[in-house]
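Page 37, continued from 36.
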């Protein structure tokens, strides 16, 4: 009798604890929802978010970014949210709990060197004088953490003298950083912003039959920052994956629209990305090579368009973010799911 009573008490406490945790989680989620809506002066109901979440598993940020408050359930259902993506990458074997080549920029650069179109250096694997010669030749170089994302930890280094370059090498050696040349950008891309390397994210799904290009999204810095990353305060804009032309306005990380670039005044709508056919060919070849590696089927390729006409792969993103769909009229969920369900 006493044992049964004790068990019932423990069960009741467990149920109450679960209810409390659920209540606190919902309270935090509602606060996030309101924080994303308030700056845009939009007032969708919490119930509408709950409906969208039940359908698409969207985070509050995704609900606002994809303007679900303006969309029908059918339109909402086209978007690939991060929770939907988590399920897909587990199904196809790109499980985020495992180690993947794109997750390490040094390893990626070694294996995909024919697609980089620029020089790079691993400070841990070179002598100080080799590093000094590299930065002296290039003047200003980019320092990147090998395992970070969203532009975190990236900074520029400009050569001043040999002694300071040796000190920089000593700081970087063993730190997991890599050093890259900053190639000259195509003049057409300078019309957007000459202060950063304006890149395009091209999302691919590769199977035994083909490399399928599902999405293309451009990024640029708002001002004179060298970072074009959306998460670092940049602007993103949809690109027609067939033509390389921009069909609509851009948007920043706070989801404010931009018809023109705030620094250069260049209109986003109608802007033509140069050498688009070259970019698609480079990405298709790189994705086919990645397919020979484990956990590399659904990938986001960041590419830059260079002054000499080449297209450089800046990096490859494994378990890419969902925000690349922000300025597109519809998402890629159903198209991706159709490919996933195909015979591999």
């Amino acid at each position: 009798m006493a044992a049964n009573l004790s068990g019932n008490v423990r069960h009741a406490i467990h149920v109450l604890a679960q209810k409390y945790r659920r209540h606190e989680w919902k309270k935090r989620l509602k606060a996030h929802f309101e924080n994303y809506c308030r700056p845009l002066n939009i007032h969708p109901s919490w119930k509408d978010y709950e409906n969208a979440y039940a359908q698409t598993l969207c985070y509050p940020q995704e609900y606002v970014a994809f303007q679900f408050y303006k969309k029908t359930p059918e339109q909402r259902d086209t978007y690939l949210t991060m929770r939907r993506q988590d399920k897909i990458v587990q199904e196809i074997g790109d499980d985020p709990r495992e180690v993947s080549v794109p997750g390490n920029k040094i390893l990626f650069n070694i294996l995909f060197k024919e697609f980089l179109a620029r020089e790079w250096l691993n400070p841990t694997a070179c002598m100080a004088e080799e590093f000094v010669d590299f930065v002296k030749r290039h003047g200003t170089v980019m320092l990147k953490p090998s395992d970070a994302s969203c532009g975190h930890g990236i900074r520029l280094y400009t050569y001043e003298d040999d002694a300071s370059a040796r000190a920089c090498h000593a700081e970087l050696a063993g730190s997991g950083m890599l050093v890259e040349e900053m190639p000259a950008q195509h003049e057409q891309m300078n019309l957007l912003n000459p202060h950063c390397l304006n890149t395009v994210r091209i999302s691919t799904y590769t199977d035994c039959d083909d490399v399928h290009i599902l999405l293309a999204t451009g990024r640029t810095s708002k001002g004179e920052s060298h970072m074009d990353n959306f998460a670092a305060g940049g602007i993103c804009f949809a690109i027609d994956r067939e033509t390389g032309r921009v069909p609509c306005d851009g948007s920043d990380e706070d989801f404010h629209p931009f018809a023109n670039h705030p620094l250069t005044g260049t209109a986003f709508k109608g802007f033509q990305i140069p050498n688009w056919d070259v970019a698609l060919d480079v990405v298709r070849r790189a994705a086919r090579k990645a397919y020979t590696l484990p956990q590399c089927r659904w990938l986001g390729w960041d590419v830059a368009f260079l002054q000499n006409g080449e297209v450089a792969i800046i990096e490859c993103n494994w378990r890419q973010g969902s925000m690349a769909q922000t300025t597109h009229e519809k998402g890629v969920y159903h198209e991706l799911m159709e490919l996933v369900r195909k015979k591999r």
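The mean pLDDT is 90. Flag for discussion at group meeting. Residues 190 and 198 are 8 Å apart (CA to CA).
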